[in-house]
Amino acid sequence: MSNGLRAAFLADRVGIEARHGALLRPNARSRAGTLAIVGFGLALYLAGLVTLDISPLRILGGFNRLFDIFALMWRPLPGGWAKVQLYVNALGQTLAIAFLGTLLAATLAIPVGFIAARNVVANRIAHLLARRSLDTVRSIDTLIWALIWINVVGLGPFAGALAIMSSDFGAFGKLMSEAIETADRKPVEGIVSTGGGRLAAIRFGILPQVLPVFASQMLYFFESNTRSATIIGIVGAGGIGLWLSEAIRMLEWRDAAFIIILVLITVAVIDLVSQKLRAAIVGRRG
Amino acid sequence: MSHTVLVLPEAQLAPLLRAYDAAVAAKQRQLAIGLLLAAVALALSVIGAEVHPAKFWENIGNFTSYFGRLSHLDSGDHVWTDPAEWFWGLKRWSLLLGETIMIAYVGTLTGSVFGFVGSFLCSRNLVKSAALRFAVRRTLEFCRTVPDIVFAMIFVVAFSLGALPGMLAITIHTTGALGKLFSEVVESINMKPVEGIAATGGSWFAQVRYGVIPQVLSNFASYALLRFEVNVRGAAVIGFVGAGGIGEELIVAIRKFFYSDVSAILLMIVVCVMLIDTISEKLRHRLLAMDSGR
Questions:
Q1: Complex ipTM, two decimals?
Q2: Would you state the pLDDT for residue B74?
Q3: On the CB side of A182, how many CA atoms lie within 13 Å of its CA?
Q4: DSSP secondary-structure letter at A204?
Q5: Is B194 helix (H, G, I), strand (E, B) or coil?
Q6: Do the domain assignments include residue B254?
Q7: Between A and B, how many residue pairs show a Cβ–Cβ distance under 8 A?
Q8: B177-229, pLDDT tens digit by residue?
Q9: DSSP labels for B104-156?
Q10: CATH homologous superfamily for the domain A80-285
Q11: Shortest Cα distance from B189 to chain A (angstroms)?
Q12: Is residue B13 situated within a structural domain?
């Protein structure tokens, strides 16, 4: 079959090229554009490799040591039952940090989200100001926030929770305002037409549409915050990260491997639970 | 224009009303249980996170005064009165920031290539072997679940200090994150072009090259750009553990209370991140427009 098509094409090749030439010839201009972009990207990549002093030799040498480390990580068991308890406790603290941080961020972000939404607050300046400040807060990393909060409440998990709150607040506010902006206008119009006030319109027209979206986003953030909360201890803001960085610094590789596996299992369990919950929340709405 | 409202007879109305009340009560009960659970979780986490509201209120002044200190030079003047003094290390910091961006760029590109390969190998519609798919999927999951800074800490030990461990950490994390996103795109493509190529006797590579890649490339590029934005932020803090870039300078400034340096470096990072976000958002919109225009 395919050979038949091929024979037919080859037999009438000149005719087909005359009739459909534009389709068969490569488009020279778009090809040149693609080549220019790819070439630029590659040149930048090579320049990066040179300036960062990355050579195959260094990579190979490092991988040698890395395999030694992996060999030492084999049989990931900490020395002694007391340490296991310590790590599990720290993991609980990590979860507490993530939960509290997410909840605080959501509570703060709801009102700001309404201000930043174009269809609720018509004032352009308020809208722009809210958006810009959310962007600024968002572009500072959780670890940096943790360092700042440590100055306020001291070392410990509370600083971690506040750091997660700060860095999520920006992202939450943005998502919230977007959800509000894309909400269906008709329920609001219905409420206004029956004489409902502005607040009633928000409460019964917008909130029921936005809340399920927001709840599922909150769960999603909780998942990702469990991951951030595991590293926040590196700078001293509580949780399992402190012990992980300690183990790596002390080259106690079996402890490090144990902690990493512990974190992986916890994250997997939380992902599973929150996936189920998300499906339930979004499903109930439909 | 008067209307007569039809009211059902009592015998028919009563069961309907009962059903309505029952439905409302069930919903309220559900809400109450949900709130109770949330309250218990909150109480537990407040204990777990060692929250001391009193200490918080006592020290909240520190938070505002910290920003106050950030905006003052050593001489006691406001930072904006003497920009040259404020940004005394502009050249050095710019170089370090450039290194940070380079780490993010090289890491993102390398990770995209690995993620690109991985995504095809774990897509249900392209690979028949369930074992291969499972293995690739789990590997990608591992790569994205372990935070990049943890990889960086381990790599700093193996590869010694510098930009290389940071770049490798970002590469691995990007591979995991993009591999998953890419495979979701690949699994949702239109299979007809692929079938067409298979029907004319094309090999697996020909099917992927001419059937799959033209459909997914613009989506892939847009995801990779988004990852680049995330990675610039990540690369800025990866230096905290000694893996290159501006992070090391920042953590030293914070730890040693060089307030005006902290604010200058933070400002540079924020401006740079915002600039990259804006440019990449424009590019992504253009890519998506190209996609829908086809």
A1: 0.78
A2: 77
A3: 9
A4: I
A5: helix
A6: yes
A7: 170
A8: 999 999 988 888 888 999 999 898 888 889 888 888 888 888 888 899 989 98
A9: HHHHHHHHHHHHHHHHHHT-TTT---HHHHHHHHHHHHHHHHS-HHHHHHHHH
A10: MetI-like (1.10.3720.10)
A11: 23
A12: no
